[in-house]
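Obj.: predict assembly geometry.
Materials: sequence records (below).
Method: joint structure prediction, all chains together.
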Amino acid sequence: MPDTARAAAGPTPERRYGNRPTMKDVAARAGVGLKTVSRVVNGEAGVSPDTERRVQESITALGFRRNDSARILRKGRTASIGLVLEDLADPFYAPLSRAVEEVARAHGALLINGSSAEDPAREQELVLALCARRVDGLVIVPASGDHRYLEPEIAAGVATVFVDRPPGHIEADQVLADSFAGARDGVAHLIAHGHRRIGFIGDRPGIHTAHERQRGYLAAMEAAQLPVHDGWVAAGTTDPERVRADAERMLSGPDGVTAFFAGNNRVTVTLVRVLAELDRPVALVGFDDFELADLLVPPVTVVAQDPAQLGRTAAGLLFRRLEGANDPPRRMTHPTRLIARGSGELPPAT
Amino acid sequence: MPDTARAAAGPTPERRYGNRPTMKDVAARAGVGLKTVSRVVNGEAGVSPDTERRVQESITALGFRRNDSARILRKGRTASIGLVLEDLADPFYAPLSRAVEEVARAHGALLINGSSAEDPAREQELVLALCARRVDGLVIVPASGDHRYLEPEIAAGVATVFVDRPPGHIEADQVLADSFAGARDGVAHLIAHGHRRIGFIGDRPGIHTAHERQRGYLAAMEAAQLPVHDGWVAAGTTDPERVRADAERMLSGPDGVTAFFAGNNRVTVTLVRVLAELDRPVALVGFDDFELADLLVPPVTVVAQDPAQLGRTAAGLLFRRLEGANDPPRRMTHPTRLIARGSGELPPAT
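Observations (raw structure tokens):
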């Protein structure tokens, strides 16, 4: 975190990661007993105004926040972590969520999820709502490109790990798949099977993974000294109508593409439908594996990432922080794997 | 709710559904001003012990709970509802979650999800954790068969709607698909296409929908006066190994089944794999539609429910309650729809 950003986050925290400050920390700093802190926090009588002010100053300095859930439950608080996804309906996130949940459970913690629906404002609202609801840590698939709003929370001890996409303008643990190399290798695979006119249909260009995969496509084309026509690269929502329109446009005319590289599983599934309607074979390699890809005709060649592994790694990093690890933020990149099944090995239609 | 259960839930609430009691309600009942209630709730000075006791009694009687998230955020509280699912990795729940989220958003509320992983203890832990985190209402796909643990929460004003499966031992709004009729019609469809030896592979029998669908299978067989051999009905986890073993057992021998009815989409997907490996056609009808079913060979005939509609209806009922509707709990049952695509119209192999 740059110093200016840290300054903007409010009072300098005495610890960045690790356990949140406890009442004991507040008591030590204020030079009072635990019972006194408890009285102040719970608004009970019997504390002098001077002492109360000292305790309040200590609370502010440490970023201490009372554990309200515990009081409501009147028993030990249930540890919980939050997971903020991009889209509940994208099957890519199902194994990722489940893996995070399994790690959380192994640590005796509950997992609470929410979806940003790819809306930065919604992401922020949801993240802060989860913090206000006292999650101990967060795993975030970011929709936003600026996470400085999280600095006060991180400073107050909310461990935070980003997965699938990096954070914006803050330093934090992050777990990514190698989107660039994966896409580059997938496109090189199509080129190796004789394709020269290859279309790329990706997700919205503001999304990190979409951008990286497009870069990978361009790198593979350049490495093979192949020209890329303007009409061969399309980025936008994964809405089936949009993908279909771009695909049909790229297929049309005498110089239509003979192969597609799809930027994610939502795009791939629509392309499978579009290509099934054609009277000529068109090759397809998709980023992301998906259920039943191997049973389609032809079976679909994919660049697979392992969303469960991404989730497990991210959750593992999170609990490492929650258990007190204090080393600088890490960036872990998982390789992808090309699975050749048939659709990516079709030769160019003559 | 039976009277005994209500008694066990603590002080009789003055309202069952509708908005939670507010500070204003507490003030009115205690015969004090709003500022006094605020002082008591926030532990501020300036309230006599007598008045404080009266306010506390009013708080207890009304089941009022302070909005702690609001204080933490230091701005208006974000309304939120919780959704407790059975399995994050089952694609059936993706459109259901998304529909609930869209309704929540239209009402200015956040959606927070959790998964019970089909574990009743986990469900209870998660539901109570969400209540402690001050959700305004809950949509629950229950794993548990006994929801009396929710009575104090419902009494305190947490609106609750069950979806996909009914609640156990409490009365509450519920939104179901017609599992019995759907399965009965799907099996009748196979019988109409000449099948006499039909296997049923379902989810665990303790699950309401699994039980209802098995009942539907048996009803269709009985209506056609067809015998059901012991080995033709298998219930258990949706683990692919289990489903595969049951399917292979039912297919073996001279009297092997010529068709399957699959109890849900997880079972169907495994059966598609098993049947793709056979050298003879075996008919298949599956409960639940699933992505790409129409592009498989043969395309898969399904009894479709509309999970988005289930979610929308459940969320609609929830916000109706949150807006004050006070009528008796409703049970809404949505019909299913048979979509004939090919696999369910195959004749029996000779």
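Conclusions so far: Confidence is low (pLDDT under 50) at residues 1-18, 67-76 of chain A.
To do: check interface contacts against the pulldown list.
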